[in-house]
Here is the input.
Amino acid sequence: MQNTDNRASIYKIFLWIYAFFYILAGINHFIATDVYHQIMPGWIPAHTFLIYLSGVIEIILGISLLFPATRKQSAMLIILMLIAFLPAHFYMIEKAPFMLGTMFITKAIAWIRLPFQLLFIGWAWIYVKKDKK
Here is the structure.
């Protein structure tokens, strides 16, 4: 019984961390807009609009993760969003080395960021599979 309670507590803690991460990331789109401009490939139109839109979407999805009724759908949309963001990550690899705000992005750093997208997709998948509604 205690093992089940511990797993439920860990699940909730990581859920809150994951949701908070997206809420903060979304807010950051409005605070550090220039940074996002630097990592958007030129072939993508309407950079500023898309930066703000993705910020709003991240905030909404982060909040939606916290509610059982919307958790599974929110997690699926996060997965799709992370896949949609992959061109920006590949563009960072292509563009490196460069300054991203105050951080110097080398090719190695840009490549290291890529597996984190898989980690975040896997993390979202937990909430897709856990909520079988």
User: Anything to note?
Assistant: The chain has a mean pLDDT of 93. The first strand starts at residue 98 and ends at 100.
